[in-house]
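Q: I'm building a small set of examples for a reading group on sequence design. Run inverse folding on the following structure and report the sequence directly after it, with nothing in between.
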């Protein structure tokens, strides 16, 4: 009898406007709802995994992974929110719990948005080391901006008037942005380089008077290794404003060379020189002859110009082909008795 009375009294005991029975029912509802959502989650995920395994598209794999990682926290939030609404809490307690739920919900939403943004950026950039560092930076900035935005939502739900604080933050933000404008400019320029991809690590590029292989694309600067091994450091802001020649984007290279034959070279020997240069270029592998003509008569020579196209974008292949052609032309000219002109200068006394 005493036990029944004690249990009945405990069951009816009130704490913060709710009986122990109310708390028990809310807890049971929380657990049952969470288990139900988890069961539905596993059934849906199981079917989605089977579907994703049959497709080559990576988007469905990402959706499955997103639901796997973020589903349980969201289900717990829904269950907890449902259980809280079953209780009649005091105004102060209700406000505290509501604030906790808002912070929790905002955190879940930010996590989802961050993972979606990281996936989209990673899909566009690939998985190289430079892309990973860029994704990390974007992820960090995105998280900061989302939490700042989420912070405003949280504060607005507390009933606090933060208009003056917001004005102060705006003024402070302008001052900080003005002081860091060069850094921010380079940062956004690095975003442009990563997204637009005018070049990548390993490409041979020419920027103004500087040429070399791209070694590293950083947040603030890009490093280029010159022909003699020197490292050229260029700010990303300057790169986005400069005219860049990317030779690795070429499917073929077109080039030309000029030879100065002596003025006393006969027309027959000029034709012989043209035919020699044509034969040398045409016999070179990976090279296509474009033209070979006498294009001018200078004050000391007959100017022969030959243009040709090298298939491929490899700079070393280009140099090797050019060297082989020039050496063979010189050998054939010497054998045929063709003389190259030397610039002369008359000094009047």
């Amino acid at each position: 009898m005493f036990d029944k009375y004690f249990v009945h009294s405990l069951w009816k005991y009130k704490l913060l406007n709710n009986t122990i029975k109310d708390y028990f029912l809310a807890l049971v509802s929380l657990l049952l709802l969470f288990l139900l959502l988890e069961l539905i989650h596993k059934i849906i995920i199981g079917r989605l995994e089977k579907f994703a395994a049959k497709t080559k598209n990576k988007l469905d794999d990402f959706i499955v992974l997103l639901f796997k990682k973020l589903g349980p926290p969201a289900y717990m939030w829904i269950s907890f929110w449902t259980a809280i609404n079953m209780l009649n809490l005091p105004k102060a307690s209700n406000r505290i719990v509501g604030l906790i739920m808002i912070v929790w919900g905002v955190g879940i939403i930010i996590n989802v948005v961050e993972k979606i943004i990281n996936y989209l950026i990673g899909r566009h950039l690939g998985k190289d080391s430079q892309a990973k560092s860029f994704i990390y930076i974007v992820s960090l900035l995105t998280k900061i901006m989302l939490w700042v935005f989420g912070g405003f939502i949280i504060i607005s739900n507390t009933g606090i008037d933060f208009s003056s604080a917001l004005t102060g933050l705006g003024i402070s933000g302008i001052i900080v942005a003005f002081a860091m404008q060069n850094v921010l400019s380079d940062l956004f320029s690095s975003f442009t380089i990563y997204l637009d991809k005018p070049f990548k690590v390993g490409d041979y590029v020419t920027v103004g008077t500087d040429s070399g292989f791209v070694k590293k694309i950083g947040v603030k600067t890009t490093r280029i290794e010159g022909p003699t091994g020197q490292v050229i450091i260029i700010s990303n802001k300057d790169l986005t404003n400069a005219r860049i020649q990317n030779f690795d984007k070429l499917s073929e290279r077109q080039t030309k060379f000029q030879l100065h034959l002596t003025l006393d070279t006969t027309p027959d020997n000029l034709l012989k020189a043209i035919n020699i240069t044509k034969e040398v270029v045409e016999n070179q592998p990976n090279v296509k002859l474009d033209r070979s003509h006498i294009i001018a008569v200078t004050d000391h020579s007959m100017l022969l110009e030959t243009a040709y196209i090298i298939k491929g974008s490899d700079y070393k292949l280009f140099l090797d082909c050019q060297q082989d052609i020039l050496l063979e032309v010189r050998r054939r000219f010497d054998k045929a008795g063709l003389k190259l002109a030397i610039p002369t200068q008359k000094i009047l006394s």
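The two ends are 139 Å apart (CA to CA).
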